[in-house]
Amino acid sequence: MKLTPLELKVLVAFHKSSAGNGHDFGFTDDGAKVVDTPRQLAGVVASLVKKNLIEVYAPVTTDSGTWTQFTFNDVDEVEKILKNNA
What we know:
The chain is of the alpha+beta class. It has one domain (5-84): Arc Repressor Mutant, subunit A (Orthogonal Bundle). The protein has three helices and five strands, in the order αβαββββα. It is globular and about 40 Å long.
């Protein structure tokens, strides 16, 4: 699967985000560290959803803020993509 350099950077950030949770889920906010603007992150997230790499859930609000979680549709496929682009 062909990814843009920015999609790859966000996917790497998402992989790191989800690692602490056994890749069961991660937080989309962790992708903000590798993009310039929230709008840019939203575009990359939409692209990763369209490419069927991630699924994004409705935001959840807690006492500590609002969080949006994602899951990988196939973590093995994501790891293969990351390995091939390392």
